[in-house]
Amino acid sequence: MTMLFLGNLVFALPASAQCSPVACSQILVELPYQLNFSKDHGFIDDKNAVGTGFTYVDPPASGSGYQSSKLLVSLSAGTFKITTTSGLAYLGANSQVNALGVGIDAPSQLSIIDTTVVNPPAGTGKYEQAGLWFGNDQDNYVKVVVISTPNGTLLQYLMEVNGALKSTVSSSPKTLSSSKVGLQLRVDPASRTIAASYTINGGSRVTLGSFPAPTGFFSFDAAGVDPEIGTNSFGGIFASHRNATTALTYTFDKFSVVAEQTPPPSGGFDFTRTTFPVADSPTSMVWGPDNRLYVAGVTGKVQAFTLNSAKQPTNTQTINTLTNSLGTRLLLGITVDPASTASNVILWLSHSSGSQNSGVANSGMVTRLSGSNFSTMQHVITGLPRAIANHGPNSLHFGPDGKLYIAIGGNTGAGAPNTANTEFGTRAEQPLSAAVLVADVKNSSFDGSCANTSNIYGTPPCSVKTYATGLRNVYDFVFHSNGKLYATDNGLGVDGTFPPTHTPPCTGFGDIASASSGGDNPGDQPDLLHLLQQGKYYGHPDPYRNQCVYKDGDYQNVPPLTNWVPPLLDLGFNHSTNGLIEYKSSAFCNALKGNMLATNYSVGDDITRFQLSTDGQSVLASSSLIGSFDDPLTLTQGPDGTIYVAEFGANRVAALIPVSACTQ
Predict the structure, then answer these.
(1) Which distant-in-sequence residues (6+ apart) come within 8 Å of 309 by Cβ?
(2) What value does the mean pLDDT of the chain take?
(3) CATH tag for 277-658 (out of 1.10.238.20, 2.120.10.30, 3.60.20.10, 3.30.559.10)
(4) What is the pLDDT of residues 591-608, one digit of tens each?
(5) Coil, strand or helix at 26
(6) Beta-carbon neighbour count of residue 559 at 10 Å?
(7) Of 166, 186, 192, 296, whose CB neighbour count within 10 A is largest?
(8) pTM of this prediction?
């Protein structure tokens, strides 16, 4: 089992082989997800091989945690019964058996998790309990339960973080053994709170409490999420007889996870939305001169789609050239060579080692595919930085100067490694990390071999140079028709640290204590929109470029670097704003033309519209254009003004066809 560290949380991420008894790809469910136990719902079986509908078992410290012999679906009664063991997730005792659940895309909506416990047994006051849970694992969770205590049967709401009790609240004693007890958790990623409530026999809902939750509970940071699972947030039901000597049987008559309905954004633009599936979670897209949509997948596959007028595939070509040669690759960028024609499309791909959480240093590459069936492969650039986490070569685009520009994520959370065992580990920044790079790949003397084999932190022996630096994780960028270059940048959402000193040399580990208490941890930071300029610094330090000051220097009580440029716009926390395009169509009577559009992968699950000033130096307004996507990672525009959105969480592409009286 792989250990991951998000925010202030430390939790165990199941490896693919440990997703049993269901496949990793089946754990995350689409909402609404409702189980009534009156039919075989599939997935995890009860003792009679009837599917319970649950897709995940929260693993205890030892063993699988799954005992089907203690599970029974009664189809005729529409109930699900769990016979208890003494195991429980509580402080150091991570021994809960049959903590059944489902994967939840927690950043994407306000999630309501519900169940009903029917006639809960009175117990003996030895902390027998049953109810709902939500969280990451048996050390990081909330639960709302019916619990038998020495003071009587109570409704209890409890939060545990990193194996320590964080918060708890209980009701007065109740007599519930002949009652239907409704339990609910309300998981709100916008406010980062989780509220618990209950009903008795369908009566008025009573709120037990609302706890602020660590950001890791919500899986905001995609750097720590196994793409095969798609989330680190899970919710479900459990039961335990804790300190009692006799097992009990608890009966549940429903379970559901639904999204609380919110008003759709009033962007004022109407689209007809259609979707089609892709073979691999989509990470980047580009429209080719052959009138096909090229979609890159997270494991290295590329698909080329011929679409009809309804934006449905009529022909699909799968391009496995990269994976046939190198195996699984983390493929995050695809673009078309400007020299391409309808009969001769040339693709450029940016990719790195396939692991999401143990990235190989300097495994970043830029590869050119051409020829019949794209079978001719040339690794034009090699040895680019790759973090232990999933930061590495991201999007790539040719600029108006004919040169290739590549976004490279940072190796660290905030500029310096630390010993907090985060998903970034102890790998430091490198001369070509945390930057947008420029490569004159058409120059006959171009040298793309960037790995410094004697010192990975030494000067790269290649023709690739930094264009703009201090960029934590630019996923995408756009050359606007106004002549300017814009980029989105993901803010810090883990325990990151800036360098231990603000002047060179500033290598070494940062102090994980908060900056407010004298350490080097600035805490969570917002996503940003930047106007990029050559040679400028945007605030993410890199000691191996002698960049030691974090952002404007305020956290270190020093002035900013002389070439520091403030962000164009603060985009807010935990949105994971990634894909970025300029909308160039005349649809909607030119009302969107020249606007920039960006995808929000986490909070929002929508597209943000940016209206720029005439000179392009500021954002006049930003608003949500359209929402209700499933982890929208990036987007592109087709020739007729259709917007294509890569829904990473659903393995599909959404096509937004403008509904407009105006032509393009």
Answers:
(1) none
(2) 94
(3) 2.120.10.30
(4) 999 999 999 999 889 999
(5) helix
(6) 12
(7) 296
(8) 0.81
